[in-house]
Design brief:
The protein is mostly helical and 72 residues long. It contains 2 helices and 2 strands. Strands 1-2 form a two-stranded antiparallel ribbon. The two termini are 23 Å apart. The relative contact order is 0.08.
Amino acid sequence: TGLNLQAKAALRNLVKDENSDRARLYAEVAQALNIEPSQIEKIQKIFAVEWAKSALAGWWVQQEDGAWVKKA
């Protein structure tokens, strides 16, 4: 990607922090809606589908199988 080691580490930390924040969001949504914590994966999928729908053309979105594609 052309990034030096320091930039790669910073990017990894940013992604880790974002994923952690997102997990807290899903847990709070579940709690607010009185949804069992075991159902958080369903909440994640709902958010993922909606975010992919709202992504602009040319943005990278992750498919359900984990593959990343550029939205047409």
